[in-house]
Write a structure and sequence with these properties.
- It comes from Desulforamulus aquiferis.
- GO terms for molecular function: DNA binding; transposase activity.
- InterPro entries: Transposase_17 (IPR002686), Transposase_17_sf (IPR036515).
- This is Transposase.
- With 275 residues, the chain is of the alpha+beta class.
- The protein has 2 domains: 164 residues, Alpha-Beta Plaits, CATH 3.30.70; 81 residues, no CATH class.
- The chain has 13 helices and 4 strands.
- Helix 1 packs antiparallel against helix 2 and helix 12 crosses helix 13.
- The radius of gyration is 22 Å and the shape is globular.
- The mean pLDDT is 86.
Length: 275
Amino acid sequence: MGRRPRVEYSGAIYHVIQRGNNREYIFQRTEDKLFLLNELQKRKRLKEFLLFGYVLMGNHYHLILQTTGISLSKLMHLINSSYGRYYNKSRKRTGHIFNGRYKAIPIQNEQYLFAVLRYIHQNPVKAGICQRVQHYKWSSDIDYRDNQEGLVDINILLNMMSDNRAEAIKKYSAYVEQEDEEEYDEIDVLGDESFVLAIQPSKKSPTRKDLDQILRDTNLSSTDFEHLKRGSRRRDLIRYKVDYVREALLQGYTLKEIGENIGISATAVIKLTKR
């Protein structure tokens, strides 16, 4: 069975997981973890992404990030290639160090974003490495507790918790200590039903209608049909767009296909699913 193609769109937030080849250890030394963090910092200086959280474990790492000036696939290729070269050179070895491609889970909103942040910060505790989240050195938990804006973009999430920074950190600390039973690296999308449907469209039906026919079936007038095809932003046409998007997703069209047919972006298509 072929791999499911990744869905990427501008402004998306992802929970990224990269494991070592055959789950072998890829961070045996302090220098290894520092190299990856320095590589992330180097890419951050180029304003290519926002980093909301990370944890470096022995045989894998987690990132929560939002790309801004680069595609996720290119960013991960640059980071992993650089680390792979460093790792092989430092061990005088050759070959792959990562277990195939990374996994990237799209995150719909701040509710799921906070939950994933807690989940990755609790990784060392659940692995039996330490007893408390704050006892682990190689995660972004310390950035949040110590109010360190730099590699990690802590201000965005802390400001959501409170306008008062001391109160926000207190709320963060209490939240991250709560029990989290979810396994967020075992699913494909983090969001509500409409978001999941938009990110993971159903398989193509051999008898599906073409997109223009789906659009016509919303009972648009001929004039309004032409306006939508030219990318009209008229508010009175939104309800037709919503009906069109929902039916097109059910028939297995991708976000890109649906959006291009009426002159809107994949992000705009997702927003229509939430109406």
